[in-house]
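hey can u check if this looks right to u? its 130 residues, i copy pasted from the old doc so theres a chance i mangled smth
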Amino acid sequence: MYPTYNCSPPVSSHTKALLTLDSFQKGGDGNGPSKCDNQFHSDKTLVVALSTGWFNNKSRCLHNITISAKGQSVEAMVVDECDSSMGCDADHDYLPPCGNNIVVASVAVWKALGIPQNQWGLLDITWSDA
């Protein structure tokens, strides 16, 4: 049994989170089109998914957030949810639920932050609404 969450830590001007990597394009790592616009997004696009609590019933859909790490910042658009409340089923590609403090980012976000490719995967960041 995996832990599930319906809430996330409060959002501030420097909300702590973990940045992970995923593809939002068709045939990529994601399990379908984005929840905000029912579209796929190129790996070259600055897009993210947020944990369920931060996604907040689509209230951040198609809005930008500012992500900061290692002295760099980038704005990315929220297009999807990283489901913290459910997982381990076909709809979630049999993956465990997302943590409650996750920002899932496209390749473009990692590149814009200047993170070397051999360090992509998991990174401590801060974020805020743009």
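The chain has a mean pLDDT of 91.
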